[in-house]
């Protein structure tokens, strides 16, 4: 396969970068996929990386020695499905259906995790399933690539990744704020704030609201983008 010629004199100009960013933000399907990456990544980041251990200890009364291992089951599900789900969706050309089903699955998993009394095995199953659906973030990158040009492909990936990280960081801050807002004043012997099960459920419910609302916003953005494209071709 012949190698492409490389232009060693090419320079990166801010005007070109700005134009590329504007084109990406004008493409509504790309924005829809960027928003969906936040829906997929924020539950994993908030529960597995930050609040999951303390939540499981308080809500499900798990011993500290086992809680970290139980929480990490989210990553077990994500590790397995991050290869399997994209392969299946690519094989059958069902990116959008895979994204929608995964979004619905995350909502169901969050509702079950927050508002149900689960046994240890059921809890592990829910966390693994949540990890499986969270890995569908990868699908959004693949689906968005169908709406890029050679000039905007790199910018598109950067914008989508920024959405996922920034959105998840905002949810982390929101959960912390809601915990402090609901806090009843309890502290341990070392002066560290202690939150009850109800306070954790109240604060972590913000993830459910976040995922549900942004998923609907992404759906309507995508539909509008497709409709505009059809009108241009008509």
What does this structure look like?
- It is a single chain.
- The chain is an all-alpha fold and 234 residues long.
- It contains 9 helices and no strands.
- The two termini are 39 Å apart.
- It is globular.
- It has one domain: Growth Hormone, Chain: A (Up-down Bundle), CATH 1.20.1250.
- Helices cover 79% and strands 0% of the residues.
- The mean pLDDT is 87.
- Helix 8 runs antiparallel to helix 9 (197-233).
According to CATH, the fold-level topology is Growth Hormone, Chain: A
Number of helices: 9
CATH superfamily: MFS general substrate transporter like domains
- Major sheet details: none
What overall geometry do the principal axes of the alpha carbons give? globular
- The level-1 CATH class: Mainly Alpha
CATH architecture heading: Up-down Bundle
TL;DR?
With 234 residues, the chain is an all-alpha fold. The chain has helices at 14-26, 28-59, 64-71, 73-92, 95-115, 120-134, 137-144, 153-182, 197-233. The protein has one domain (30-233): MFS general substrate transporter like domains (Growth Hormone, Chain: A), CATH 1.20.1250.20.
List keywords for this structure.
234 residues, mainly alpha, Growth Hormone, Chain: A, 0% strand, globular
Give a topology summary.
Elements: H1 14-26, H2 28-59, H3 64-71, H4 73-92, H5 95-115, H6 120-134, H7 137-144, H8 153-182, H9 197-233
Helix pairs in contact: 2-3, 2-5, 2-6, 2-7, 2-8, 2-9, 4-6, 5-6, 5-7, 5-9, 8-9
């Amino acid at each position: 396969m012949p190698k492409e010629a490389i232009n060693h004199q090419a320079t990166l100009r801010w005007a070109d970068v700005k134009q590329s960013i504007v084109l990406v933000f004008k493409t509504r399907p790309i924005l829809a996929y960027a928003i969906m990456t936040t829906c997929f990544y924020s539950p994993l980041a908030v529960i597995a990386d930050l609040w999951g251990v303390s939540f499981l200890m308080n809500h499900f009364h798990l011993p500290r020695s086992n809680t970290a291992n139980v929480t990490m089951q989210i990553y077990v599900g994500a590790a397995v499905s991050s290869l399997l789900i994209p392969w299946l969706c690519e094989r059958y050309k069902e990116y959008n259906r895979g994204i929608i089903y995964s979004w619905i699955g995350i909502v169901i998993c969050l509702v079950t995790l927050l508002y149900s009394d689960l046994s240890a095995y059921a809890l592990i199953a829910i966390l693994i399933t949540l990890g499986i659906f969270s890995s569908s973030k990868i699908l959004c990158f693949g689906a968005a690539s169908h709406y890029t040009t050679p000039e905007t492909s790199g910018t598109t990936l950067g914008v989508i990744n920024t959405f996922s990280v920034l959105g998840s960081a905002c949810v982390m801050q929101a959960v912390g704020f809601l915990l402090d807002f609901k806090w009843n004043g309890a502290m341990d012997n070392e002066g560290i704030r202690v939150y009850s099960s109800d306070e954790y459920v109240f604060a972590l419910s913000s993830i459910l609201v976040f995922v549900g609302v942004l998923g609907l916003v992404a759906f309507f953005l995508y539909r509008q983008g497709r409709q505009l494209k059809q009108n241009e071709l008509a």
